[in-house]
């Protein structure tokens, strides 16, 4: 059951990315980056078993961010993609800060939300730092690599620059996050297993998004930015 839900969820997220781009243009892509980042940082707290492997649920939405930044790179250039990355980074940092401030307020008598909010948003600083560092490093590399392969292939082979940039960036993301968050916490073999399963499922979504990039290119040809 989990496997079918996971596959369906991946296609749902990638399809909604295209729909938001179709109706809102460039602003829709920025919206996808912010929306996916906020939710994946909550969903990542839940672990699930997929195909006999344990992984976090946030991998789908996080991988969808790479589709969004690749779309910005392809249609609007490197600077716009970097702007999208920095927008996502800023929102995640502010959301984390604001929720930490919210947790400092003493709850009213009879309040039921405080322990649940603390469980979700009272993240250890080490995990928060790991997530933010991994995001910024991997996304900046993704933008650079996408532009590199675009120039290298003279604008041809969209599938190559989409996958070559994303797959390496996903590896960077998994490595940076796991090393910062879990080094010294788990034995090295366990750390490597967590890193592998995290990268594996992100990589699968990265491969799934290739046809969605081609569809997005057709949508872009219709100048969606004029449809408001």
UniProtKB/TrEMBL annotation:
GO CC annotations, alphabetized: plasma membrane
A Pfam family matched in the record: Vut_1
Subcellular locations according to the entry: Cell inner membrane
Membrane topology: Multi-pass membrane protein
Transmembrane segments: 6-24, 29-45, 51-72, 84-105, 117-137, 158-184, 190-208
Function: Involved in the import of queuosine (Q) precursors, required for Q precursor salvage.
NCBIfam families: queuosine precursor transporter
Protein name per UniProt: Probable queuosine precursor transporter
